[in-house]
TrEMBL record:
<protein>
    <submittedName>
        <fullName>Zinc finger BED domain-containing protein 5</fullName>
    </submittedName>
</protein>
<feature type="region of interest" description="Disordered">
    <location>
        <begin position="1"/>
        <end position="23"/>
    </location>
</feature>
<feature type="compositionally biased region" description="Basic and acidic residues">
    <location>
        <begin position="1"/>
        <end position="16"/>
    </location>
</feature>
Length: 215
């Protein structure tokens, strides 16, 4: 309620003054609250900008505004949102936080590696298609060559990353097959939101892309 009142108050004030002066006054007025290590007992960590951190609930992940970085508001979230955890204490929340961090790291690395590997696989498949090489060249030449280059230039550990890129004949074939349909899908989406005259250009583009990508 007080948040609501304060907002209303400041907006009515900015309306009365010239924009340039009100901006300076508002900047001066904004109090950036800092995170206190002690807030972990309310089940809160922080996220975002270090100069104006936002409280983040360790249990549900909710992010509150910087102005909610006060014990009363953090406590309110804990007691109303997670009453069963209200009396767990610092150690419990510290453990939860550690677990969250580990999980986040794990998920992040799993996602980025597989996404990169997938992207690399598509890029190589495109090269194979453009050069009109057999689909098997991915596993018989390109991948072994990449492994050698990476092993010598970066080291044996990095070779493991190269191994994640699937370049088997079947995969390459599938990727090449996927490409025109993907282009077609994108074009259909564009067409639905475009003007009629775009149709001719799009059809020409489809014909062109299937000529260059297929062999
Ligand atoms: Zn929460």
């Amino acid at each position: 309620m007080d948040k609501f009142l304060r907002r209303k108050d400041s907006s009515s004030r900015t309306g009365d003054e010239e924009p340039s002066t009100s901006v300076t006054k508002n900047l001066k007025k904004v109090v950036k609250r800092k995170y206190d290590e002690d807030y972990i007992k309310y089940g809160f960590s922080w996220c975002g900008d270090e100069t104006a951190p936002r409280p983040q609930c360790i249990i549900c992940g909710d992010q509150l505004s910087n102005e909610s970085m006060v014990p009363s508001k953090l406590k309110r979230h804990l007691y109303s949102g997670h009453p069963s955890c209200a009396n767990k204490g610092k150690q419990y929340f510290k453990r939860c936080l550690e677990q969250n961090k580990k999980q986040k790291k794990f998920i992040k690395s799993a996602v980025t590696v597989s996404e990169k590997a997938l992207e690399a696989s598509y890029h190589v498949a495109k090269l194979i298609a453009r050069q009109k090489k057999p689909h098997t060249v991915g596993e018989t030449l390109i991948k072994p060559a990449c492994r050698e280059i990476v092993r010598l230039m970066l080291g044996p550990n990095e070779v493991k990353e190269v191994n994640k890129v699937s370049l088997s004949a079947d995969t390459v074939k599938r990727r090449i097959h996927d490409m025109p349909s993907d282009i077609l899908g994108t074009l259909i989406k564009k067409l639905l939101s475009a003007e009629k005259f775009a149709l001719q250009i799009a059809l020409r583009e489809i014909a062109f892309s299937s000529r260059t990508t297929l062999h």
